[in-house]
Amino acid sequence: MSEKILSIKDLGKSFGNHEVLRKIDIEVNKGEVICIVGSSGSGKSTLLRCINRLEKQTRGQIFYHDKEVRDVQKEINDYRSKVGMVFQSFNLFNNMTVLENCMLCTRKVLHISKEEAFDRAITHLKEVGMAPYINAKPSMLSGGQKQRVAIARALVLDPEFLLCDEATSALDPEITKGILALLQKINKEMGITIIIVTHQMEVVKQVCQKVAFLSSGKMLAVGKPEQLFVWPKEREIRDFLREESDKLPATGVNLKLFFYGEGNQRPIVTQMSQELHTDFNICWAKLEDFREDVYGSLVLNMEEKDLDRACAFLDSKGVTWEVIK
Ligand SMILES: Nc1ncnc2c1ncn2[C@@H]1O[C@H](COP(=O)(O)OP(=O)(O)O)[C@@H](O)[C@H]1O
Ligand SMILES: [Mg+2]
User: Fold this and answer.
1) Rounded to an integer, what distance in angstroms lies between the CA atom of residue 191 and that of residue 160?
2) Using one digit for the tens of pLDDT, what is the confidence trace for 216-256?
3) Which distant-in-sequence residues (6+ apart) come within 8 Å of 35 by Cβ?
4) Where are the domains of the chain?
5) What is the pLDDT of residues 140-154, one digit of tens each?
6) Ligand 2 geometric centre to CA of 83 (Å)
């Protein structure tokens, strides 16, 4: 059985009368990469700030290795020293070099010698590919390089888990891929658990083993990303994920088919067309890499009269479908 590193139970947070988080329950296992997704303002950053205790929740509890993180400064400090943070805006000190940025908090938090702080900083800067830049100032670096330094700075404290708040949102797609690959490497090789907050679905697809969907401060669903993508039961999640609606014909009916893994290989549409003696118009389609797998969806436009037979055919083949407006 997997070891629980963090349990959040019935967590709530209000600012005055404004209830920002309600009844949040999540369990995070050691070694997992979990994404918390949701649109802007849904409470993602507040949740991360509660998780690292920068913000005190108004109700509920946080358990770290089955032990409650109580409202006692020493317990909070011990817990915080196990949590690394990575932000969208990097939060590096511009008047210090890359090396100094990475050494600063180790000396303050861990009370280690300058030599040891130096060794740790160099080790982690090498890991993130920034060893050649140790004497550079952050202002001389690109966004992706700054984020690598920020990740090294989080690692020098030897955290058990990393919290990333929109860590790739300010970066362009190629750089984002590199940072996500780095986070995956850190997860796999160092065994560090990672919680990523994002509104970018690419992030979920590339790295997550578990995803939690937040909407107006409530946890709508927690599950495997493939479940969420292939057939989210909740209408709101389907709407959030929907990319095709503005491109669809206004006449007839639009039927969306979902494929995952093996399903991609089957020539389902041509088979259906032959069996039902009808033509279908493919009006939208997408195939996407999904960690090690491929996920696809396509939208068929058809006459209303063919809909029932098409749905029955898809059911008989075990293909997930949805009529979309
Ligand atoms: N310190 C604060 N004081 C008052 N309201 C806040 C504070 N921090 C966040 N909020 C409110 O909480 C809601 C969720 O914000 P946030 O957690 O930043 O969402 P997200 O990160 O998903 O965009 C917003 O309505 C925001 O205005
Ligand atoms: Mg935010």
Assistant:
1) 8
2) 999 988 888 877 766 677 777 877 777 666 678 889 999 98
3) 195, 196, 197, 198, 203, 204, 207, 208, 210, 211, 212, 225
4) 4-233, 244-324
5) 999 999 999 999 999
6) 18
Ligand 1 nearest-atom number relative to CA 47: 17
Under DSSP, is residue 161 helix (H, G, I), strand (E, B) or coil? Answer: strand
Q: How many CB atoms lie within 10 A of CB 225?
A: 22
Structure token pair of residue 131: 């060893």
Cβ atoms of 186 and 163 within 8 Å: the answer is no
Ligand 1 atom nearest 40 alpha carbon: 23
Find out whether the beta carbon of 42 lies less than 6 Å from any atom of ligand 1: yes
Strands of the sheet with 320-324, listed across from one edge: 281-290, 293-302, 253-260, 320-324
Q: Under CATH, what is the fold of the domain 4-233? A: Rossmann fold (3.40.50)
Distance of CA 27 to the CA centre of its chain: 15
Could you tell me the pTM of the whole model? 0.82
* CB 132 less than 6 A from any atom of ligand 1: no
CATH for the 244-324 domain, from 3.40.309.10, 3.30.230.80, 2.70.150.10, 3.30.70.260? 3.30.70.260
Protein residue whose Cα sits closest to atom 11 of ligand 1: 20
